[in-house]
Design a protein that fits this description.
Elements: H1 17-30, H2 34-48, H3 56-99
InterPro entries: BfmA-like_N (IPR048012)
Length: about 130
Amino acid sequence: MDKGYEKERFESISIKTSVAQKFKKFCKGMSRSKSMTLLLMIDFFEDNGISPHESIGPKMQTLESLIKKRINGVIAIMKDIEKNQTKPTVAMMQSLFEQAEPPKKTFILEKEIPKEKPKTRFVERLENDDEL
């Protein structure tokens, strides 16, 4: 039974046999009862404000082309902003930072590391080196 419609009684509608067979196949494909499938179809048409006599194809294509045009317009605006505002501003900021860069100073606390190897304090003596 259909949820929420258990207590309602059935009503009969006269339709042609070929239409009834086609509707039965459609209901099986939807995995719904005939009443629920018909209710879903009616709700769809009412919610979207379309008539079964109208073709959705051209409207969807028109909508798709309109969205593509708007997206292309947004892309053009973003490219223009990048070219005329962002890149010049970044270039000005970089030039300011290059000029204002202070000379590098060594801190007093820094320990200088010698670059030469330290002299060895102990030397290994060989047997022949008795003179040392």
